[in-house]
TrEMBL record:
The lineage of its organism: Eukaryota, Metazoa, Chordata, Craniata, Vertebrata. It comes from the Eukaryota. The keyword ATP-binding applies. SMART domains: B41, MyTH4, PH. Residues 401-747 form the FERM domain. Residues 48-67 have a biased composition (Polar residues). Residues 1-18 form the signal peptide. This is Pleckstrin homology domain-containing family H member 3 isoform X3.
Amino acid sequence: MPFPGGLWWLLCCRQGFTLLRRDYGEADREADGEAEEEASFELRAQGDQGSLEVSLSQPTRTSSGSERSLLVSEEMRSLIVEKGPGPVEDDPEALVKGWLQREVRGGVKTPWIRPRKYWFVLTPDSLDYYSSNERGAKRLGSLVLTSLCSVLWPDKQTYKETGYWSVTVFGRKHCYRLYTERLNEAVHWVCAVQKVIDSKAPVQTPTQLLMRDVEEHGGSPEALEQIYRCNPILRYTGSPLYAPLLPFPYGSPDQRAPGARSYTTLRDEAVKLFNSLQQLESERDPAPLIQGILQTCLDLPPLVDEVYCQLVKQTTEPPAPGGQGDLRYWQLLTCMSCTFLPSAPVLRFLRSHLDRTESRCPASEMAKYAGFIRAALGKTKGRECVPSLDEILVLTRRQEMVCTVHCPGAAACRVAISSHTTAAEVARELVSRLGLSQSPNLFALYEQSRLREQPVGSATLLADVLTRFENLAGEEREQDPPCRLCFKHYGFLDTENVPRDSLEFALLFEQAHEMVLRGQVPTSEETLQTLAALRLQSLNSDFSTHVPFPRLEELFPAGALRARLRAPRPAAPPARRPGARLRAGLLAGGLWGQALAKQRAERDQRLRGRLREEGAAVMAGILEKWKLLQGMGRPEAMAAYVALVREWPGFGSTLFDVELHVSPLGAAQRLWLGVGAKAVSLYKPGEPEPLDSFCYGRISSFGASDSSTFRLSVEDRDLLFETSQVEEIAQLLSTYLATLGARRPPQTEEPAGSRGPAGSPAPDPAAEPWPCRPPPGAFLS
């Protein structure tokens, strides 16, 4: 139904007045906002002279609810320079001036509303804009520039969308978005504004001033108590915060973690965190909320000091000391101390708070938490992940965690760890506990699942590894089940002299079996069946139909079973006539597509049937060989298994899947890179003999060219390998080189360019490449 003519006229008039108000009413509101900007400036320049009577209360809102202020001295007002009646062309204080377009409501994204141009003047104290460049022109707005202001460079995306280059200046309460059609003009304004910001002295909040006073009067208990009594901002409050305790840049849109959830400005996030802290007092299960606060601090590192200051504030003279709400703050402070290390001024302020708490309440729960926190701060060096929920529950009780480490061929070990325990420390403890201190071989912890396995770095915190396990379990990946920690060989320096009745030989046997199942022992199918029979003999002793029988994939490599199904390559299809592809595309969604799907299903069913037949044939051969092992004991079966695997020359080396680039334009060749105790070898997958082998005396250097390229320099040539295990290869090579260097006499002269990895001397080519035994519990370097 069409609108009456009168209604159309009313709507058009209303829209017209709205547009006029956008163009001309915006400036009036901004001019009024200038007074608000000047009146609410609450920070103090670091270099200001004069005494400041520090007596600050909690930040409060005004009666209108739109303004936040702190009680400060009148000398703060002197930072705001009074402006004259209008711009002067020869004003000596004007650094940059010119016409720019100011974004109005609707902005340049609305083509039918053209942005208005204003005359902008940049001075050493502010960025002002006027209605024109004539004398006596009205000043429409001013943005006071301090060290906390920030400016964004023009981006190409805005230019593509609007046709203008943007300059964004963030102030405390206002944000100026300016536009120009010329890129060089935008860059000139950005550089000039940034230079003014950099020239400003750092500003300090009242909390920072009081922190300095607390540090200066730490030796006088009377003066310290006077500071806390006269300044409520240092004490507990049940009211919300309306401003952060520490200074943060205005705007700061780039303070975000890649891949993390979206955050607002640092100032807003600091206020939100204080609200979350207050929720802890009444939360039934505080662990998830504590973990969320820690995750925000991990994503936004500048907020770590702010949270520490907020927690010190909330644990200072609470209404119910030792109550549930007070202890929740102490528990979060305990988790923070085991995860993040604050800056030096905040750390001194925190330690002063801990001392004050222990002296005022010596036998209380708060004093026990204070002692635990002080000890944790001496060990914390930073975390890759926030504590897991289990770790948070343990930390709230000031206890240690229990970590389960699986050992192939032995029972799982339970190790007590803290938030600061590294993988190297656990590896050394297991080496001592399992009686492996006299072994010449290297051991390490591994993150292990059914589909992947990788060593844990020596300096990696096990608490971070357990957090990753918790995150993987929460994602419920069916194709990659949750990981576990496993203790096993990391490098083989001597596999010949391992006693057969020792635990290390059981570990060696299990690791050899893992290599066989992964297809990393090139041998004949007959030998693989013999190995499977020996495995059954070691597990179940003599053949019997009543013993538990493992699955075929736990005895025989799946790759060798699929190799039996490989058929000869089919002949090339006949050439298609013109229009065949079009007709196939037209029929793909109809009956012809259904027929193709049916054919694929039938082909997959036939393949599965053949796979079952081949698997049954292989199992029958394994059982026949198992019957021939009647009377062989478990130690003999294990020794025979290891002896068969040791016949491959590459046994004892750690194999990595790599792609070698023979030439820049040539195709990559898929190979195995075997890193052993004596040499580095290249194997073609499935081939028993190496393509090439390089002893450590021939290797001049190695390292990572990038995140997926490993470079190996051998004499006068460089080999580049594409792999996802660059770091693991470099660590293992460094470990072997360190072991080789342990038995060599010190070099009297070191030629140029012969440095090894991480600044260690390169191996002597004339020295015999035979490693000596590393220190007990040697681990990743």
